Amino acid sequence: MKKCKAKSLLKKSAKILVHPLIAIICGILVGAVVIFLAGENPLDVYVQMFQKSFLNIYYLLQTLTRSVPIIACSLSVIISWKAGYINLGTEGQMIAGGFVGTIVAIYMPGPTYLVMAAAFIAAMATGSILSLFSAFIFDKFGVSIVISTLMMNYAINYITNYFITFPLRDTGSSLAIQSKEIHAAMKLPRLVEGNTFNLGFIIAVLLVAAITFIIFKTNFGYESKMTGLNPIFAQYGGIKKGRVMYSTMALSGMLAAVAGLLEIFGVKYRFLEGMFTSTSYAWTGLMSGLISSLNPIGAFFVSIFLSGMQVGGTAIQRTTSIPLQVSTLIQATITLFVSVKITINFAKKNKFVSRGTNSAKKVGEE
Amino acid sequence: MLLEMQYIRKMYGNSVLANDDMSLELAEGEVLAIVGENGAGKSTMMKILYGLEAPTSGNIIVRGERCTFKNPQEAIKKGIGMVQQNFMLLPPFSVAENVVYGNEPKKMGLFFDRKKAIKEVRELGEKYDLKINPELKVQDCPVGIQQRCEILKVLYQNTDIIIFDEPSAVLTPQEVEGLLNTIRQLAAMGKSVIIITHKLNEVMKVSDRCIVMRAGKHIAALKTSETNTKELSALMVGRKIIDTEIPPITKGEKVLEVKELCAIGSMGQQALGNCNIHVNAGEIVGIAGVSGNGQTELLHILIGLMKAAGGEVLLNGKPITNLPVRSIREAGCAYVPEDRNTMGAALNATLMETMLMAHQYDVKLNHKGILQYNTADKRFSSMLEEHDVRYFSLRQKAGELSGGNLQKLIVAREMSHGARLQIISEPTRGVDIGAMEFIHNQMIAQRNNGIAILLVSSDLSEMMKLSDRIYVMYDGLINGEVQRGELTSEEIGVLMMGGNLGEKV
After folding, report:
1. Which of A136, B91, B245, B467 is the most buried (most CB within 10 A)?
2. In this structure, is residue B94 part of a structural domain?
3. In total, how many domains does chain B have?
4. How many angstroms separate the CA of residue A10 from the nearest CA in chain B?
């Protein structure tokens, strides 16, 4: 019996891994075709790409640095999606959190650590207020969370752009549209000489551990998972739907804000116009959440992989005629193949539930 | 002989033997019932006949001619039709459109002739006494009419052999009666019918012969007139089913008291009007009624899933009206819901997670917000064993369990709360005889231990067997209170239809 259990567990974890692996292979194959059509040797390009993202220590640290906000964003997505609330506003919450945190860090007087703590608290509050607002208008007026969180991204991006272009712009330095720099004492310490690799990565690892614990071990994780799987069942068991929604959305917004802060305090040290939209950290985080089927540990590794694709893609752009967009294409293809599975599962589930109306099969048969 | 199936074997993979040397024959105008527990291989046998599955070995002979069916179309060409358990209908389309689907009458060989379709379907309905308005949309029809539409569809394909797969599982008692009449009518008009079921009273009413299956094997073939339900159920389960003795009731104190309860339904109608009931300790109280007469609303208010518009609910003498679900559960109320798939479980959750529901507040399983999965593992494994749930691992998905096993799991979960009031709705719907016997015995044991049980079931015979007292509900009102053995099922039926016994026919 015990042996049987262990075997099935092994089988199950293999099953979970098989699908993303197939998707990744498909993505790489599609990328190979495009590279071939562009007149380069796909194998050469891929070898270069992996050398300049994982196999060389300088690039590897670059990859890990870049993965930090992606990891935090994927955690933000995982927390809300697991409970069945599709928060697409990670980008906006990240921008707003990062912006408010930076402003507090620059302009608030006081001892460094106090200011830094205030900046983190203000940023996380801003991120969660935004996500809570979407939860609230869904609760009270039935406005879809998908729509409101997505739309808010644009509004927040333009509002922060205004502030950074006009009242809060650092006019002293360059022509770039950016804020002043934060105090040197607030910068997250770098861990390796001559590289941007910094404490943020350790924080990201701790966050993954914390979220994994929350999801798999706590009652909060259990209740939000059950609400996501079957809200009627959850309610029947005494779980308060509203409480699960507000708490998961708040946590999701907070994590998005932390993603923004880690990038600013660890790498850029100031708020720049379009710093999160042009890099599309949030959407990469979303993809990694989906590819890993909303598993935080899986998302950690997928985030590093996707980050490596981007770092490698940027590197080969310099030496070959292959643009960075190829790595975006590979990413998108992987996500597409993973979503196919999600959609199929969803369709299956619906068919199971709606007895008497599953006519699709009949159409297929005749 | 119209149809013969000889020595049918069906293997899934290398290990699972679904049918083992099964044979059957069917004469013209005959109704043959195939009975057996869930998983006995009845459905597989019929899927083979209808071309949905290929047999590993064996012959199918229709009118003396050996046939192999690669798909249902080939089976239909030989005059074999099947009324599926899950209807294969297109809900937004009309009855007529659904019936002729695939064989539409055409204008000039090209355009769909809707008028002719409606006319043909109406005539077909009249011929077989299946009255139906062909212009109605399927989604607006009640389940019984949808099934009628499905039967017409099979008849429209000019079939002589009609297979019914668990046809009564989705129907109300009244609709079942209508269905059984239809089946007899079809046989009288020369059609041959095979009906798969595990409801033995239906077998007795409708069939000429029956075949009992167990674990894929042929157990017995009997003339219905020469057997009875006792013999059949013993053959099905493989041992004698003993009716549990229900000891006389001991008078207990009031556990549940509902006073003047009112509720407004989702359409703004009055769902409950001045409902007064009570349940004592050590008593099973049934609520009989055609479904949709306020039972669901009553139960949902009791457990806290719906708000009452007026009135009061007392549990152990304390008011629990309109409290949240968790508070009501903690006050001593457990609930086995009517629909195990949508409310009683999350099919994609593991057994552990399904079992944990409403146990997650137990301090032994929840240390300051952190769940103690090891403790839960031990507790739930022994609970599932006690309740004879057949499972593989607590990490497997709930949706992988058979209906009967999932139901036993839900019953185990709810009974283990030790709540003084247990609300149990449709405890044995779609469950085989073995599981049904088990669940009934559990309920009786709980009652004998002084637990108050409120039972709602659409199966009147189950209700009359278990209940010490029955309230009959009609249109949101209590239309009578009956002690055990006081009335016959026909008399209760009159009350269920809103009549009163003074005007008994």
Report:
1. B467
2. yes
3. 2
4. 12
CATH number for the domain harbouring residue A109: 1.10.3470.10
Shortest distance between the Cα of A343 and any Cα of chain B, in A, equals 15
Q: Which residues in chain B are closer than 8 Å to A356, comparing Cβ atoms?
A: 86-87, 89, 91, 143, 146, 170
Q: Does A2 touch chain B (CB under 8 A)?
A: no
Do B25 and B91 reside in the same domain of the chain?
yes
Q: Does the CB of B416 have a partner CB in chain A at under 8 Å?
A: no
B361 touches chain A (CB under 8 A): yes
CB contact under 8 A, A233 and B345: yes
Domain closes at, from B212, B237, B262 = B237
Q: How many CB pairs under 8 A join A and B?
A: 114
The pTM of the full predicted model, rounded to 2 decimals, is: 0.77
**Side chain identity, residue B379:** R
Q: Would B410 be classed as within a structural domain?
A: no
User: Is residue B473 a part of any domain in this protein?
Assistant: yes
Last-in-domain residue among B202, B237, B272: B237
- Write out chain B's pLDDT in tens, 505 residues: 889 999 998 887 766 778 888 889 899 999 999 988 776 788 888 889 999 888 888 999 999 899 888 888 899 999 999 988 777 888 888 999 999 888 888 888 788 888 888 999 999 888 888 888 888 888 888 777 888 898 899 989 889 999 998 887 767 667 788 889 989 999 998 999 999 887 788 889 999 999 998 888 888 899 999 988 888 888 887 777 677 778 888 878 999 999 999 999 877 788 898 899 999 999 999 999 877 788 989 999 999 999 999 999 999 999 999 999 999 999 999 999 988 888 999 999 999 999 999 999 999 999 999 999 999 999 999 999 999 888 888 998 998 887 888 999 999 999 999 999 999 999 988 777 788 889 999 999 999 999 999 999 877 888 889 999 999 998 889 988 999 888 887 788 888 878 777 654 4
Q: Using a CB-CB distance cutoff of 8 angstroms, which residues of chain B are in contact with residue A239?
A: 326
The distance of A152 to chain B (nearest Cα, Å) reads 32
ipTM exceeding cut-off 0.85 for this assembly: no
Interface residue of A7, A222, A236 to substitute, partner B, most B CBs within 10 Å: A236
Q: Taking CB atoms and an 8 Å cutoff, what residues of chain A touch B345?
A: 230, 233
Residue in B145, B328, B347, B409 to test binding to A, most A beta-carbons within 10 Å: B347
Containing structural domain, residue B91: 3-237
Domain containing A228: what range?
39-330
| Residue A236 to residue B72, Cβ atoms within 8 A | no
| CATH code where residue B430 lies | 3.40.50.300
Q: Indicate whether A192 belongs to any domain.
A: yes
Beta strand spans in B84-153 (E): 106-107, 111-112
Long-range contacts of B434-438, Cβ-Cβ distance < 8 Å, separation of 24 or more: B434/B37, B434/B237, B434/B404, B435/B404, B435/B405, B435/B407, B435/B408, B437/B237, B437/B241, B438/B387, B438/B388, B438/B408
Domain count, chain A: 1
Q: Spell out which residues of chain B touch residue A365, defining contact as CB-CB under 8 Å.
A: 71-72
